[in-house]
Amino acid sequence: MKRYFLEVAYKGTNYHGWQIQENAGSVQDTLQRALSKILRRPIQVMGSGRTDTGVHALQQFAHFDIDELGASSDFLKRVNAVLPSDIGILDVREVAPDAHARFDATWRSYRYVIGLRKDPFEDGLVWRCFYELDVPQMNEAANLLLRFDDFESFSRVKTEATHFRCKIKSAKWEQKPNHLIFHITANRFLRGMVRAIVGTLVLVGRGRMTLEEFEGIIKAKRRVEAGSSAPPQGLFLSEVLYPVHIFV
Amino acid sequence: MKRYFLEVAYKGTNYHGWQIQENAGSVQDTLQRALSKILRRPIQVMGSGRTDTGVHALQQFAHFDIDELGASSDFLKRVNAVLPSDIGILDVREVAPDAHARFDATWRSYRYVIGLRKDPFEDGLVWRCFYELDVPQMNEAANLLLRFDDFESFSRVKTEATHFRCKIKSAKWEQKPNHLIFHITANRFLRGMVRAIVGTLVLVGRGRMTLEEFEGIIKAKRRVEAGSSAPPQGLFLSEVLYPVHIFV
């Protein structure tokens, strides 16, 4: 039995998130069906993490096991032909038999895209925001995140998480002519965390919340303190990093 | 009465083209409804030209008349809020009372985008092409277009056109890492012309047609000689130029 890592990208608009759910189409389920079809046996995949309904991935990884995959270029061609147009497999590579897409991931990065101007080609891919936003102030607040290691205030209340500790490596807003992009990298993310952080940082950018209040929210460790979540369509899982030793 | 030019962009996926049709949603109709709603009187618009079902526009122009529009920034905000997310008004400006979006346009440019790699975010925005294409040969053929001035071979058979003369200024394929983009500029285009040209140039690129055969098709002036049309989703009206004297 060999283990393979799939590098996957998807537009999340038409899916109820990554994770398989009853009575709702998920990316994981669509992927498993396509793999099972072309490999002619039941295939299960384990993703690096979940994404919510409507959230996209520029780079997601998932592992699965099979005796022998054959030529990877041939496999990629066949699986992409079977998959719908909004899911693409970018690459496949063999990994160590005990490599794990979720547990071995060391850093995960998300980006959140705010659209400052109406663009007919970006529907479902940005949060169209009409507020005047103070970007330097939002970056001051984003910097405060790096000083803390418990983010219960930005976690969904219903969660399977046993603790709320995350090591945030970087968190920064990038100003572009027609977009404002939030980049955040951490060792792990809690459910709904990026969208809750973005929603709260936008309150800071609108002048509705001071830096002291933002810091107080982090310290409070209660979700109810933070701002409402930014909508899912602006969120992209953008990069997942692994240690090189997992690759054979 | 004042005349205004609207600069419009739209994703054509959900529309039956620009032109108003019975029993089918068009961009023109959607635009007229939005304008009539916010300006509180029946507004009709005249576009620079038609685009077919599923074809997009990065820059289309249309004129309409009204006594007084008021502040353009306020107008843009209101009309974009009423329009659906796949149509955007980029700008509005007053023009001479006899300026005409269709008859005054001097050059029109289209681009046609071929996708060389599956990209989940490009659905409906490229023609996903699996052929090996000889791009230099396709550019040789594209160059031949500049030597002729009658393109009946690339016109739809059912047409209201009284003649088939077009002055093609430039026609060129651009090779990008994951895309092949055809840029073409002419004083006018016949119905279905760009898609028929692209479909035939792809035959050249696949080695199914020689340069001599391609030239013979242009000379034949019969649509049946050319290759089948490339699908609409890769086509974008990209630029329309006007002489400066029409602007007040």
Structure, described:
Chain A has 248 residues and is of the alpha+beta class. Chain A has two domains: 2-103, Pseudouridine synthase I, catalytic domain, N-terminal subdomain (Alpha-Beta Plaits), CATH 3.30.70.580; 107-239, Alpha-Beta Plaits, CATH 3.30.70.660. Helices cover 23% and strands 26% of the residues of chain A. The first copy, chain A, has five helices and nine strands. The first copy, chain A, has helices at residues 27-39, 72-82, 135-145, 193-205, 211-220; strands at 2-10, 46-47, 56-66, 87-95, 107-115, 127-128, 168-175, 179-186, 235-241. In chain A, strands 1, 2, 3, 4, 5, 6, 7, 8 and 9 form a nine-stranded mixed β-sheet that branches. In chain A, strand 7 (168-175) and strand 8 (179-186) form a beta hairpin. In chain A, helix 1 (27-39) crosses helix 2 (72-82), helix 3 crosses helix 4 (193-205) and helix 3 packs parallel to helix 5 (211-220). The longest helix of chain A is centred in the first third of the chain and has 13 residues, at 27-39. Chain A is globular, with a radius of gyration of 19 Å. The mean pLDDT of chain A is 95. Chains A and B meet through loops of A and strand 4 of B.
